[in-house]
Write a structure and sequence with these properties.
This protein has helices at about 35-45, 65-70, 85-95, 115-125, 145-165, 180-185, 205-220, 240-260, 265-270, and strands at about 1-5, 25-30, 55-60, 75-80, 100-105, 130-135, 140, 175-180, 220-225, 230. The protein is α/β, with parallel strands linked by helices.
């Protein structure tokens, strides 16, 4: 694992004592992923048999994703998202979760559920936000192209310059965090209205960048956890290299302005302090598949 330095743009919030054996809520946003859910959900409970709940958030699928989820895992909780977009799906899942720890898991099979214990171990060891990274020792990707890897490197540089962080993998959405951080994230209310054809800020694929910016701006403790990205099992990815890269860049600028607006005038005059790269920490034992 690797601790992420950041500029402490806001004073860190101290939380009450957290449990040593937290209840784990896994939130899985879904839109037309029936064939993948048949594989991913059983793999999840094999890897983490003690999971408190699995929440599938359906984005108005036109296939039988909901039926497939219930067939694969009869006790799964299914929520229909209130608007549209991955960010809204995640917000709906977070709002409905009852666990102590929230884990973000894609439904396409690219994220390995067997890594969840390492994320949770990092949280129990004292971090607030455990961020998956494909670019620290022990991580990797079967799927990323040279172009996307180069773009990710450039976006890391922008994020680290603006927020004083030392992220190695800004554009990766496999994360886990304590549920008591939710008020800090200030995600759009799940019952907020949206005009037809429009999305609220944070409702789309920018959600992953929004979360990474906001935890950095809040001054919470962040640790990067090695993660291996697999190929999608079935179907085609919705990633669009140039369009999504441009959206991430716009998100970084917007979130930096938002963070600055939270500071008082005197704090705003001084740039966030820069830190040297954090040393590598001991890697938590990887959980074996059961």
């Amino acid at each position: 694992m690797r601790e992420v330095d950041h500029g402490d743009v806001r004073t860190p919030v101290r939380h009450a004592a957290r449990p040593a054996n937290p209840r784990i809520s896994v939130v899985v946003p879904v839109r037309n992923e029936a064939r993948n859910l048949e594989i991913v959900l059983p793999a999840l409970v094999r890897a983490v048999p003690s999971v408190h709940e699995v929440i599938v958030v359906d984005g108005h699928s036109s296939d039988d994703s909901v039926a497939a989820a219930r067939a694969a895992l009869p006790w799964v909780r299914v929520i229909t998202q209130s608007r549209r977009g991955k960010g809204n799906a995640m917000a709906c899942g977070f709002a409905g979760a009852t666990g102590d720890v929230l884990v973000m898991l894609d439904a396409d099979g690219s994220a390995d559920p067997a890594e969840i214990p390492a994320f949770v171990a990092a949280l129990v060891a004292g971090t607030d936000f455990a961020k998956g990274s494909r670019f620290v020792p022990g991580g990797g990707s079967e799927d990323i192209t040279w172009l996307r890897k180069t773009g990710n490197l450039g976006l890391n540089g922008v994020a680290n310059t603006l927020f004083g962080t030392s992220y190695t993998d800004l554009c990766y959405g496999y994360n886990a965090f304590w549920a008591d951080l939710l008020p800090l994230l200030e995600l759009p209310a799940v019952d907020a209205p949206a005009s037809e054809g429009e999305m609220l800020w944070g409702d789309g694929f920018e959600i992953e960048t929004v979360l990474n910016c906001r935890v950095a701006a809040a001054g919470v403790k962040i640790v990067e956890v090695p993660s291996m990205e697999r190929h999608r099992i079935h179907g085609q990815s919705n990633l669009r290299t140039f369009a999504d890269g441009s959206r991430v860049l716009r998100t970084l600028i917007a979130e930096y302005r938002r963070a600055q607006a939270h500071l008082d005038p005197f704090e705003r005059l001084a740039p966030a302090p820069r830190h040297s790269a954090a040393p590598n920490l001991a890697l938590a034992p990887a959980a074996a598949r059961s």
